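In response to reviewer comment 3 from the previous cycle, which asked for concrete evidence that the modeling workflow produces usable outputs, we include below a single protein chain processed end to end. The sequence was submitted unchanged, and the resulting structure tokens are shown without manual editing.
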Amino acid sequence: MIVAFSISPSAGDETGGVSEAVAAAVRVVRESGLPHETNAMFTNIEGEWDEVMAVVKRAVDVVAEVSPRVGLVLKADIRPGWTGELTAKVERIERALEG
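The workflow returned the following structure tokens.
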């Protein structure tokens, strides 16, 4: 499965920024060892249901350490038996654009 998720703390730093809290969540994802990518809006992670959801929970927990309230947006592509789709889906689209 692939999960795209975004975590937002309810409170930012003195400038209203949330980059430190979000960086802590991304660090959890990177340390998980699962295939992942981060863009301006979401972090995508691929793996089995239990391992992906455990990483998302840990990421939420680290943000909750610095914020009294945490927002989570999550979208999942659940396709049992398929792996490597984090990049393969994009490659199929690129091939279609070339053709």
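The two ends are 28 Å apart (CA to CA). We consider this sufficient to address the reviewer's concern, and the full set will be provided in the supplementary archive.
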